[in-house]
């Protein structure tokens, strides 16, 4: 007969227990809790929207003579509406939690799925103040987005605009400042602001401009993925020309 494995035998192998896989409802609960910290009324908003959809669906069902069918359909729509409200406010709550931290703009840009060619790392950084400038290319043209106080980032934005204008002289360049001071764009509204920029390039032109700028970005100080911008330091050997 085969000997049963004891707890001692299991410990000898040294195999760590596999982490438990999170179910979808665990993620849902975590998103709700995070959102509730920023927007305490989120539960009532979801409930109100769901009840409103249900009442409307049942009313239409009574009017057309199919209350059960329309009620079931309304229940499905009510759940979808409630989840959409949660998803919208959960994203804004997430932005509110990271706002003001170095790299927050990069986190927002990482949520944009299509329509833009985005440099995942900052194209300019001030190691002393941790002010950053990000660059992306889309149909509105070239967009430079800064993190930091206006009196410090204006110079960085102008320097970057001069650099990209030498490579793409006929392309529109937008300079946006992300922050809470006057004239800046709050982090939760940044993505919406990008959508409102007028489109002036075709998709083919976007690809061509992005290739030119990618070569320009490779020539400047690199910031490897995963490196904390707070700890970034200039390459002193490179500065001495070695």
Automatic annotation (TrEMBL):
It comes from the Bacteria. Keywords: Membrane, Transmembrane, Transmembrane helix. Pfam families: DUF4191. InterPro entries: DUF4191. The chain crosses the membrane at residues 41-62, 68-88. This is DUF4191 domain-containing protein.
């Amino acid at each position: 007969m085969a000997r049963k494995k004891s707890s001692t035998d299991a410990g000898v192998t040294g195999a760590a227990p596999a982490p438990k896989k999170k179910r979808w409802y665990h993620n849902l609960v975590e998103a709700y809790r995070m959102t509730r910290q920023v927007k305490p009324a989120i539960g009532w908003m979801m409930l109100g929207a769901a009840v409103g959809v249900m009442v409307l669906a049942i009313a239409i069902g009574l009017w057309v003579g199919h209350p059960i069918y329309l009620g079931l359909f309304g229940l499905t729509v009510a759940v979808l509406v409630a989840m959409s409200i949660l998803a919208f406010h959960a994203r804004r709550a997430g932005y509110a939690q990271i706002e003001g931290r170095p790299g927050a703009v990069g986190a927002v840009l990482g949520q944009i799925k299509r329509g833009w060619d985005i440099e995942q790392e900052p194209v300019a950084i001030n190691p002393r103040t941790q002010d950053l400038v990000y660059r992306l290319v889309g149909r509105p043209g070239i967009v430079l987005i800064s993190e930091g106080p206006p009196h410090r980032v204006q110079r960085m934005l102008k320097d970057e605009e001069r650099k990209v204008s030498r490579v793409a002289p006929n392309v529109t360049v937008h300079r946006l400042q992300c922050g809470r001071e006057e004239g800046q764009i709050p982090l939760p509204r940044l993505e919406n602001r990008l959508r409102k920029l007028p489109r002036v390039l075709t998709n083919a032109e976007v690809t061509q401009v992005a290739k030119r700028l990618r070569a320009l970005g490779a020539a400047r100080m690199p910031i490897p993925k995963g490196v904390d911008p707070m700890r970034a330091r200039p390459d002193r050997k490179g500065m001495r020309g070695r």
